[in-house]
Amino acid sequence: MTFDDHKFRLGQVLVVCAPSGTGKSTLIAMLREEYPDFGFSISYTTRAPRGVEQDGREYHFVSRETFVAMRSRGAFCEWAEVHGNFYGTATKPVEEMLHRGQDVLFDIDVQGAKQLKKTFYKGTFVFLLPPSREELVRRLKGRGTDSEESIAKRLTNASGELAQAEWFDYWVVNDDLAEAYDELKAVYLAGRCKPSLRPGILDNIMQTWKNNG
User: Residue 159 is inside which H or E element, if any?
Assistant: First the structure.
């Protein structure tokens, strides 16, 4: 008899946060390449479409009044105001993916992660750490895209974000990229094995004893 784990598994919410310059985008891209079935929830925003952006593809573009009404009735698992526009992730589509057994990956800032923690408290929350302040400065300068003023602001923000790392479930230090990826991957795979995401699996296996009793 072959055991089909997919019949008994709920999806996992995987939340990854990091200060700018830590290498989060690279690590997430590596994870998505190896595991391309991650679910993706299209966010809502009150800003206007840019260029070739289409409603329902890049974002759900809604009016400020619609967004506020949705927020008031608790439709968002996380939301934020950025440069005068609202952005938010609707809870229902995420829950639907999870119930289908599809994992959902969030690449998000610390404040958004804290909101997600309230809704998806059984999720896996990972904070990526730079090995040192000096190394973070080197990486930010090495990108060649930030002014000295911008780098100083990012370092100040990084200090505030690091102060909140303590409530995350896992810490991964991105000193060596390959090692950091191995650790992130291990955390993700371990999270898939949480008993809370495998309802009924033990009862089903125990039933095989009764059937052969």
Answer: helix 148-162
* Inter-residue contact 136 to 158 (CB < 8 Å): yes
Known binding positions: 18-25
Report the alpha-carbon distance of residue 114 to residue 87 in Å, rounded: 15
Nearest-10 Cα torsion for 161, 120, 170, 14: -100
> Which letter, b or e, does each residue of 85-105 get, where b requires 16 or more Cβ atoms within 10 Å of its Cβ?
ebbbbbbeebbebbeebbbbb
Could you give the domains of the chain?
1-39+103-205 (3.40.50.300), 40-101 (3.30.63.10)
**Cβ–Cβ < 8 Å for 44, 67:** yes
pLDDT digits (tens, 9 = 90+) for 124-153: 999 999 999 999 999 988 887 778 888 898
d(Cα 128, Cα 22) in Å, to the nearest integer? Answer: 7
Beta-strand pair 44-45/60-61: parallel
pLDDT surpassing 80 at residue 212: no
* Interval 80-110: pLDDT, tens: 998 889 999 999 999 999 999 999 999 888 9
- Extract the annotated binding site for ATP: 18-25
Residue 77 backbone dihedrals phi, psi, to 5 degrees = -85, -20
